[in-house]
Design a protein that fits this description.
This protein has one domain. About 70% of the residues lie in helices and about 0% in strands. The protein contains 13 helices and no strands.
Length: about 290
């Protein structure tokens, strides 16, 4: 049966477009706040926004009891641990390197699906994923972090983080259709906030720089844009396509990252980057055309 759903793909791409600008916002935030503090504030504000939305909606909060375990685990793996590692990684390396490293995430997701969930991945999907990864390697060649101390540690943290994201994809995809998307995202944000709260005592000092308008804008974007809108869209998208196809869409992240660097930071775009982005988009289109196992 054909699983690909147009609305789901649109939701996934929109979420990744929002996340594409998150590396710039996080890079601004780590100049003033500790990595765990950023995660806590981001999720706490997101939970507050989602709680208000839940109160204003006519549809009541609803999460199936059978889905609770996977939703809680998705919050721990895909939000608390994921963003703690990402924030530390971005603090040690560059935003462009962080975006480029996400190219390995679809591979981790495919491996997790095959090993732990016995998921069927077609040859077309494999080809699309690796084509997209090849495009990422091409467009990001030469992107560096300016030689920051400990950059290799940051890169390793970000690469290993792909395991967290792979598990997140499959955990969320297993949630039943009866569970309300808004309710699930709210529960994830509350759980992630509590996780970050437990980590705060181990991440001192919490404030390491001045509180500036740029920092406030970055935190508002990370909370309302990335943790509310993007997660809502991504969770919705995972209900209509496979975890492997959703992860393949993640290869668009560096493409959007380069675009926002050009649009917001006025960084030039090279021909290599344009060609690499085209290959990535082709790979995503190819991997999103799923076929049924026979």
């Amino acid at each position: 049966m054909e699983k690909n759903n147009t609305l789901s793909m649109i939701a996934l791409i929109l979420s990744i477009m929002i996340w594409g600008a998150s590396f710039i916002a996080t890079r601004i935030a780590v100049l003033s706040l500790s990595p765990v503090m950023i995660g806590f504030l981001r999720c706490a504000f997101a939970a507050l926004i989602l709680a208000v939305i839940t109160v204003l909606r006519k549809k009541k909060y609803h999460v199936e009891k059978s889905d609770l375990r996977n939703i809680l685990l998705s919050a721990i793996f895909g939000i608390t641990i994921y963003y703690a590692a990402e924030n530390y990684g971005i603090a040690l390396t560059s935003a462009s390197s962080a975006a480029a490293i996400t190219a390995v995430y679809p591979i981790f997701t495919v491996l997790i699906g095959r090993i732990f969930f016995h998921d069927f991945i077609s040859l077309r999907q494999y080809a699309g994923i690796f084509l997209a990864v090849g495009g990422i390697v091409f467009l990001s060649a030469g992107a560096g972090g300016g030689g920051q101390k400990g950059q290799w540690i940051g890169n390793v943290l970000l690469i290993a983080n792909g395991l967290n994201w792979g598990f997140y994809n499959y955990l969320v995809q297993s949630v039943s259709q009866k569970t309300d998307i808004n309710s699930m995202t709210l529960l994830q944000s509350i759980t992630a906030s509590l996780g970050f709260l437990l980590l705060l005592p181990f991440d001192q000092p919490l404030v390491i720089g001045p509180i500036t308008p740029a920092l406030i804008a970055a935190m508002v974007f990370l909370s309302a844009g990335c943790s509310v809108a993007a997660y809502y869209l991504y969770n919705y998208g995972l209900r209509g396509v496979s975890a492997a196809a959703a992860a393949a869409c993640l290869n668009l992240l560096p493409v959007f990252g380069i675009f926002f660097s050009w649009a917001l930071l006025h960084e030039p775009i090279s021909l290599r980057q344009i060609l690499g982005a085209a290959v990535v988009i082709l790979g995503v289109i190819l991997s999103s055309r799923e076929t049924e196992a026979v």
